[in-house]
Amino acid sequence: MSNLQLLWFVLVGVLFSGFFFLEGFDFGVGMTIKSLAQTRAERDVVIHTIGPHWDANEVWLITAGGAMFASFPMWYASLFSGFYLILLLILVALIMRGVSFEFRSRMESDAGRNFWEWAAAIGSFLAAFLFGMMFTAMVKGMPINAHGDMTAHFTDYVNLFSIVGGVAVTLLCYLHGLNFIRLKTTGTLRARALQWAKPLYWVLFAGEVVFAILLYFNTDFFTKKPISTLILVVVLVVLTCLATWGVYGNHEWLSFISSGLSLIDVVVLLFNGLFPRVMVANNSVNSILIKDASNSPYTLHLMTVIALSVLPIMLVYFIWSYWVFYKRLAS
Amino acid sequence: MNLGLSILSLARFQFAMTTVFHFFFVPLSIGLALVVAIMETIYVVKKDVLYKHMAQFWGRIFLLSFAVGVVTGIIQEFQFGMNWSDYSRFMGDIFGAPLAIEALVAFFMESTFIGLWMFGWDRFNAKIHCAFIWLTSIGTMISAMWILAANSFMQNPVGFMINAKTGRAQMTSFSAVIKNPQLWVELPHVLFGAFVTGSFVVAGMAAFSLLRKKNVTFFRKSLKVSLIIGLVATLGVVAVGDLQTRYIIKEQPMKFAATEGLYKDSGSPAAWSIISGMDTKNHKTNWSVEVPYVLDILSYHKLSGNVKGQNTINKEFHAKYDKKFGKNMNYYVPTKTLFWSFRVMTISGGLFALIAIVGLIFNRASSDLIMRQRWFLWVLGICTFLPFAANTTGWLITELGRYPWVVYGLLTIADAVSPNVSVASLLISNIVYFCVFSGLGVVMIVLSRRALHHGPDDLLKAADDAPYDPYGKGALSHE
Which of A286, A279, A282, A283 is nearest to A146 (CA)? Predict the structure, then answer.
């Protein structure tokens, strides 16, 4: 494995981390439209908290997909063709929630607004749940042949482990969304988000324990990399403790940063377990390895130069746009 | 259950459906971004608030189009891996790079600045706010450049080698990929086509409103701005189209011969068929209405010269590729589709130029001719839809004319499809996309019509009161 290959494995991980940190609260806020927010005015406010940002946040996913294609096409080809039906549902979910914000704002009747609010809420829920499910199934190991083609059956994607993975990611996103709303709103919404977060954090603790146990039995993470895996699981629990402390002590920034970092920690946990593979096959000889999956050194070198020169500029205006809209919205 | 469907035909149908639908909104968004940016610039320069309202009003259509364009674009990116995994494996070294660069350079720019533009009307002074729409507009154009760089490689592979060990294409020169001559005729053609789309959608919708005699000043000025842009863009698209034709005849003679319905060599001088009856089974032209010399003028800007027919080219291709690929392939492209598509596209181009000129004359400030010539407003109104036909037929020529290749001369379509995806999966995804697109299309049309029907009254009224802006100063509270 060359340094460039390692760098791009990390970069793909960084892009997915960025995606889950940012779109994580978008998904969470999307789900609150039909749960936490109870009046039309409240729904307007929660949608406006992500209004200027959600589209740019989703670009992290598109960039992660593009970067995967540009660095590890064997991974991209195997993953995307293998998880066909899950990705189809993810696409439909992303389409529904993607158009819902714009379409809702044009509706004149309550029924019309209601329809697109449900589209946003269900789309956000499904996207978060299915991404969790897909990545969990991916590290568990799938039937992959020597060509790198995956032919999975229903129970390969849908099983106890992948469902728990999906629920855990959904819950993390939902809490991350609540923490974001606590930062961006005032009055009753802010207070209610705090109220709702309290019991949910205890559910999350339980979920994390179940997930860790299933991770032990369903993957080779603990046998192949016991120390790093254990550290990352402990970090996840510590971050959740910090977020809970932030909820009970009403430290809003602490909760938000902790919930975001716990999503990143989950990505790191999965990528750490994958390494040095990119796809895990049931029959381990067919697992796809970083060293075999990548593009030529020429292309990797080129992409490194471009990514490292463009990313800093992009981050400047990306972060600036958050700073511009960094203000609380009145209920 | 055997429906006689293959994964290949279903995957091809899906690519056609998703790309055509996505490409309704791509040129519309690129074009409207430019039109809105120009309107807002006029506001900044002239300080006439009418142009601010114009930018805001047409911005609503732009935002709708942008939203649908974004979500249908994600399908495009995922589709290469989902349906065309062997293509992705073969081409990843070359194709992935422009895709990733497009996201990194263009998508972040568009999406961030469109957010600032949407929510920033009251937070920035007019000049900075205007810069946001320009940055969005430039972002959309950069995006077109990178995705067309990828497409151009598929049309005309350059700057690569085939790795003998892996059998995969490998990039040897990034600058050759970027300097691909195909790209530099395709990109301007697509961009000018997008500007035509944006401007004629504005002009056509304005015409519908003028028919209802509402907000006459507002819509007549919108018409003027959009028709000027439309005229310049039409002249651009025709000029570049001419360059592209002369390029295609050299690089992809089969595609060109099909757009002219030529089976036999034309001989010199070459006559141009306005319409023909083609027998695609026996590869011959039964009858045609011809104008002498015109094909030579189109192809070579001369009055003489032979244009090769498909039968000749087919023979050449058999000699060139059959042995290399170890199979006896069919090299004929879907001639009828290409022939008629080419006519729809070029006739639309001519109509746009004519209509823009007549429209500008009718609409000149000193006359109210435009209000009296209602037939012309109807013609303009119909022009709302014509650019979409022109764009789609243009892509049908480009993409179908590449048959049987997915990457010209390197990889056939049949070898590109995902081997592990089932007919059932593809059938389900086709049905799902069809339903989703139909729904989105209907909502788009209904909402655009509604926006037009309401007109800019609320903007004109809101100019007196403070507009509701969730991020406006009054609406925010600090701790």
Answer: A286
| pLDDT tens digits along B324-353 | 888 888 899 999 999 999 999 999 999 999
Binned at pLDDT 50, 70 and 90, residue B473 comes out as: very low
**Sequence-ordered alpha helix ranges (H) in B120-215:** 126-155, 174-179, 181-211
Q: Do the Cβ atoms of B144 and B190 come closer than 8 Å?
A: yes
Angstrom CA distances, A198 to A245, B204, B261, stand at 10, 55, 71
- The pTM of the whole model exceeds 0.90: yes
- The helix/strand/coil state of B213 is coil
Give the count of beta carbons closer than 10 Å to the beta carbon of residue A285.
7
ipTM of the complex: 0.93
Of residues A72, A102, A151, nearest to B63 (C-beta): A102
Mean pLDDT estimate for chain B = 91
| Lowest-confidence segment of A66-75, A93-102, A138-147, B289-298 by average pLDDT | B289-298
CB contact (8 A) between residue B67 and residue A56: no
Separation CA A152–CA A82 (nearest Å):
7
Q: Which of A160, A215, A180 is nearest to A23 (CA)?
A: A180
Angle of CA points B425, B426, B430, to nearest 5°:
120
Rounded to whole angstroms, the Cα distance separating A149 from A129 reads 24
| B421: closest chain A residue by CA | A81
DSSP annotation of A330 reads P
Distances (CA, A) of A101 to A30, A114, B119, B258, B454: 9, 12, 14, 45, 20
Cα dihedral: B386, B390, B391, B397 (round 10): 160
Q: Choose the closest CB to B99 out of A70, A84, A324.
A: A70
Contact status of A251 with chain B (Cβ, < 8 Å): no
Alpha helices per DSSP H over B252-261 = 253-259
Domains of chain B, residue spans: 7-252+334-462, 260-333
pLDDT for position B478: 37
One DSSP character per residue, A37-64 reads --SHHHHHHHHHHHTTTHHHHHHHHHHH
